[in-house]
Write a structure and sequence with these properties.
heterodimer; A: alpha+beta; Heat Shock Protein 90; five-stranded mixed beta sheet; 15 helices; 67% helix; B: Rossmann fold; 7 helices
Amino acid sequence: MLLFKLRKRQLIIVGILQFCLGFYLVFLLQENWFNVLNKIRLAIKAGDSGQLILAAGATSMLSTIQILPFFLGTVQILIGMPLQPVKWSKIRFCITLMVILLCSWLLANIYGWRWEFVSSILSAIICLYLLEKIPPGRYNFWQVSFIFIQIIFAFQWLNTVPFLEPFLFGRSDIPLSIKIAGRYLKASSVLNFVGLAFCIPFLISGLATTGVIISSAQAIKAMEESREKERQLRNIQVKALENRVHQELHSLVHDLKTPLVTIQGLNSLLTMLNDPAKITEYSTRIERSVAQMTEMISEILYDSVRKETSVVELLDYVRAQLPLEDQSIFIDIHMSEGLPCLYINKIRVARAIINLMENAILAVSGKQRGNILFSVDPYVGGILVTVSDNGEGISESALEQIWEVGYTTRKTSGLGLPFVKQVIESHGGWVKISSCLGQGTTVRLFLPGINACNVQDQAE
Amino acid sequence: MGGTALRWQKKLIFKFILVLFLLISIGCQTSDNHEWTLPNLPRPIAKEKALITSAGQSTDAYIIAEIANQLLINNTFLPRAKETDLVNKSSLVVIVGYSPTGLKAANITFQNEKDRLTHLLDRAVEQKMKVIVLHIGGKQRRNKWSDALLEMVVRRADYLIGVRSANYDGWFTKLSLQYNFPLTLVQDLGELKVPFTSIYR
């Protein structure tokens, strides 16, 4: 149960209830205090300092139980109060000390329960200091209670340490009776030792607990932040990839011009013609162009649109789009015989191949003689497209990251290869890259043939 | 915000420690009083059997009762002794020390305790018994309730034994002069046996 995660109003109510519990505990623990008194009397009668140590332990424990609800109640009320964060620590510090003083004054005057000023204030300061160290919003009721119990208990032990008497420790009834009895039994040094032996480890344990809580809170926070960053990065990557696809599609729109120009030209001729045979022929050609445009638009708009395409048809489309202006680049195109037909979105696959070719051209540009080998061979029922260049190559470390969105070794968007991979994999193929630094890069791309596609479709 | 709060807290803790030390140093100052005290009585003033009782119900009375037993002083220890308990007793030993827990355990109020002591002391004076008062709690047992009880008891006292630290303000000396009774101040409880024995032996 994480009380500190309750709503602010509930926190205030719980805090007030804890105050009430604190006042009620004064009555509830009265019999226990009488038992401590009896232990002191027994120690005096029997001359047994062991009973005094038991009495000192019981005193520290009972004082801790009585003080704890006031500490926790104050802190919870203050956490629940709508304060400005800048003033928060100062206000909380001062108000907590004031409230603890006020409570002790009330207890002293209403119930005659004399208060240990120094030990309580010191433990309050340490508790608040440690609480400030815990990142805001990470307060857990049980964790904070555990820290407070250890710190308060540690300081309560100091009330029964005789040598701290000049420092105003242990001025209330029971600790004082223990110390006077200790003097009579010549057990002051024992009380000094036992008091410190309990105080120091509990104090260290309290600090260590806080350290563990702080580090775990920081670790959780860091984990949450990193998860958030990862999520944001993923969103950005997805958006970037979508943008790239749109960019590719926009670049393809100009392809629509070809059939449009055909239609326009034939249409202008139609008006001048009187020959019905020619009119029929031109009309048929216009219709074919319109059908071609419709197909292209479908392929551009929808990734899932596929049609039977020959490798020659695909390569013609690729060749028509390649920017071959650099005279120092030699492209050797080799196409094997007996290549199977493909069942693909021609425009998207062509764009993927063009991307690979553009990368190869970029790799060899600036070289005295740039060689690019483009080959298409039959491979396990499909085709294997190989694009090799004699460029600078890619380092091994870069090869591992090359498929990540946004990664680039040049000043490009870093979206080309992820787009290629996405398109090829969506067609049931694969793409692999190998490179040797200083010697060149080879990209191999597999696309299943039409028979393999049919088998796959049937299996699905 | 975190850095500012930390600096502010450090300053506050430093100021708090400074004030604490000032308070302690003021508290630790003892006035240079001229103490008209005796190390012990020159001759016995009281006879056995003694009635030992408490004024304030602190556990200090149990210590004196044990010391009396160790010194083989014939006594009856009754923390809440009444006037009827004075029968067959020759002296009254009152140990002053206010204990709110002791009073609660005895189910009596501070006023009940004062009334009991008034009646007890009146009867003791009537029976011409010697009244010996002890305050062994030192400075820490000096508070308004203990002082009120002590002031009430020493009016009838024939001898007062106290711990030196309790006379930090010279109040014991003043009372001794005011009510004309001998005063012995001991350094610690170990020194108490000699003046206490000197009352009877």
